[in-house]
Amino acid sequence: MEITNTNTPAEKKGNIEDLVAWQKAKELAVNAYRVINTTNTDAILKEKMLSSVLEVPYSIARSYGVKQRIQSLENLYEARESIFEFKTALAISVDLGMVAEMQSSDLLPLVDHTDKLVSGLIQYKEDARKGKVRKPFQQRSGKDVDGNSIHPDNFGNADYTNSPVSNF
Question: Kindly report the CA angle at 163 between 57 and 82, in degrees rounded to 5?
């Protein structure tokens, strides 16, 4: 007689590669790595920037890979902390003239977008932990540059299936 466990938790749909927040964090890490390695930043600041920016996608991946919601939240908070550490180290490097203002301004929109996505995941997890039920998604109609109708979600995605919380 074969014993099967019927109490196993439901598996998450999709892969980490499908998560928009992870994609943006990885894009940020790649772009920051390229910028930082072309500057004359000293070793201490360079190490801080690289370690903190690389920690962002790692923490998001860890949050996706754990079963417990609390541990997942802790990993997302770590990702957010790393974003702020990177932003701080980058600002110090710019103030010291080690990184050009133009190079920094190329990275900052991506930093801010990644922060918003991670914050959205945190809010989603916090709401779920508190038992809050999310209202059904309501698309707002708008027009893009070409005059086509668009329906963005809270995270700037035109298609809700690409929302950072669609597979969480």
Answer: 25
**Residue 150: strand pairing partners:** 142
The string of pLDDT tens digits covering residues 114-161 is 999 999 999 988 888 787 766 655 555 555 555 555 545 445 555 444
Contacts for 26 with CB less than 8 Å, ≥ 6 apart: 57
Report pTM.
Answer: 0.70
Lookup: tokens for 25:
């964090």
End-to-end alpha-carbon separation of the chain, Å? 36
Domains, the chain, with CATH or none: 16-132 (1.20.1440.60)
Backbone phi and psi for residue 150, each to the nearest 5 degrees, phi listed first: -130, 155
2-11 pLDDT, tens per residue? Answer: 444 444 334 4
**How far apart are alpha carbons 152 and 141 in whole angstroms?**
8
